[in-house]
Specification:
The protein has about 80 residues and is an all-alpha fold. The protein has a domain of about 50 residues. It is about 75% helix and about 0% strand. Helix 1 packs across helix 2 and helix 2 packs across helix 3.
């Protein structure tokens, strides 16, 4: 069940990350949502590895938002070079 919750948080977080990150996005809606979900998953598993979250506990809204913004910025850097 926590994976479903992480994906739902990632969906909302991806949309917010797109609004909060300045500049033009090279990807569309689907790419941004996928980056939000990936950022939320990244924040969850990185937080568990660092001991911030217990096993089975998701990152939450703020952690997912930070993860999504980081991945969105990385995506922008990579997509500009190609």
């Amino acid at each position: 069940m926590h994976i479903i919750w992480t994906i739902l948080i990632g969906f909302v977080v991806g949309l917010l990350a797109k609004m909060l990150t300045p500049g033009r996005d090279p990807g569309g809606f689907i790419i941004t949502v996928a980056i939000g979900v990936a950022g939320s998953l990244l924040a969850t598993y990185a937080g568990q590895a660092l001991g911030w979250y217990q096993p089975g506990q998701s990152a939450g809204f703020f952690g997912g938002l930070v993860g999504a913004i980081v991945l969105l910025l990385i995506y922008r850097l990579v997509s500009k070079k190609t």
